[in-house]
Amino acid sequence: MVDEDLELERDVGEATIVYDEPDEGTVRKTVPNEHVAYFQDHWIIKTDEDEDGRDIVRRIPAQRVHYVERSVEEFEEEVSTLVDQVQSFASDLRTKIPVGGDSAGRREREREDTDPINVDIDEPEDDDDPLDR
């Protein structure tokens, strides 16, 4: 319950998205900032909740969106939040889809921990081409 109380006290600002809807023409929709996101070349807007409390969202292809305008307390804070979200998303992806596989990462770590080995190669004493042998 405490998290819900904190959520109500926090002002997340608003976002206005202006986009083309096939049946309605240009639509201008204002929602709380937390109800709009950009993902996989689509703007995603929370439009409602179903009877089980699950979010209903609308995915709008980026090419149909004219602009998204957000009110934020501080621009630097907003950019920092976006960077954190991207890093979190990237971390989640690395967890779900190991890039290069676990064995590749282990081999790389082993290479970093191992000292290089020098091998002396003696030149043949005669002038014969070693490839002719």
Calculate Rg over CA atoms. Answer: 28 Å
- The largest sheet has its strands arranged as 2-1-6
Tally of helical segments = 3
* Helix-strand sequence: HEEEEEEHH
Shape: elongated
* Biggest sheet record: 3 strands, antiparallel
- Give the tally of β-strands: 6
Average pLDDT level = 75
> How many angstroms separate the termini?
82 Å
As residue ranges, the low-confidence spans are none
User: What percentage of the residues does DSSP assign to strands (E)?
Assistant: 25-35%
Helix content: 25-40%
Secondary structure class reads alpha+beta
Element layout with pairings:
Blueprint: H1 2-9, E1 14-21, E2 25-32, E3 36-39, E4 42-49, E5 55-61, E6 65-70, H2 75-96, H3 101-113
Antiparallel strand pairs: 1-2, 1-6, 3-4, 4-5
Question: Describe it for me?
Answer:
With 133 residues, the protein is an alpha+beta fold. It is 32% helix and 31% strand. The chain is built from three helices and six strands, in the order H-E-E-E-E-E-E-H-H. The strands form two sheets. It has a three-stranded antiparallel sheet, with no helix packed on it. Strand 1 and strand 2 form a beta hairpin. The longest helix is centred in the middle third of the chain and has 22 residues. It is elongated and about 85 Å long. The termini are far apart. The relative contact order is 0.11. The mean pLDDT is 75.
Explain briefly what this protein structure is:
By secondary structure, this protein is of the alpha+beta class. 32% of the residues lie in helices and 31% in strands.
